[in-house]
Design a protein that fits this description.
This protein has 15 helices and two strands. With 302 residues, it is an all-alpha fold. Bound molecules: geranylgeranyl diphosphate.
Amino acid sequence: MSQDHSISISAYLEAKKKFIDAALERYLPGEDNYPPVIFKAVRYSVFAGGKRIRPILCLASAETVGGSCDAVLPVACALELIHTYSLIHDDLPAIDDDDYRRGRLTSHKVFGEDMAILAGDALLTEAFHLMSDTSLMEKIPPEKLLFVIHDIAEAAGCFGMIGGQVVDVQSEGKDVDSEVLNYIHTRKTGAMITAAVRAGAVLSNAGEVELNALISYGQNIGLAFQIADDILNVEGDQVLLGKGTGSDAKRGKVTYPALMGLEASRKRAGELVKSALSALKSFDHRAEPLRMIAGYIVERRS
Ligand code: GRG
């Protein structure tokens, strides 16, 4: 007899977010450490209410191949620390110059530019400190852990998120084609999302076929995520988003809606979700959260 494994996407995301938040609380040093301002700044941005989509993807990917959420949790949290660093630096006056993020003032508005830069640096460093703790090897073979740390470093670096961000900054106010746009989106946002899915799978001993299918899923939803982000910047609700809208157009940013219009952007995001779902077709019910997340990514309002 077949069992009903259904759970709503909102219940799933909420439960996983709680699990991740509790772990981040344990992993991050308290504000009673010296010098207090850096611990305050780090915690201010990490606990500002992000969706935790990258760590959730890492856990969901692990569950899909029969892995344990507990074993991959530190790596999942490290992904969120790297993501939060990128947001702090992205908001700086020299980059996007944003005053609000996740519904509150940006780090540099509260702590000053100097401390915001250092808080981003601290988060990036802390992520690798957390992933390289030898206690993780009690649950994960060291060679798998090293592979994943290397992979995440690549996704966050010049061949990934930083590379995408550099071309994004350089393209502001310029006419660029879809090839450049795809370069930006697949690196700036897609690389870390794919790395999150891959990390969960590798750390849970996924086989080659499973791994390739999950990487394809990650690449498709990674691009869909940024297209959805572009669309939300045009027509999203500022309150739900926790940040201003219309900033991409004001800055002459290269985005899907700017290049091909809202309708075609929505269509492209939908196609990517379809491809992501098709990559999961050989998995059983344990891939249901990943399937739901694919839909959520383009339907979300924040
Ligand atoms: C080193 C100065 C300097 C800048 C680099 C690396 C970098 C700054 C920026 C990366 C670009 C970036 C911010 C990409 C992510 C784009 C994106 C879709 C962000 C929003 O992610 P969500 O929706 O946010 O997951 P929450 O708040 O839910 O975590």
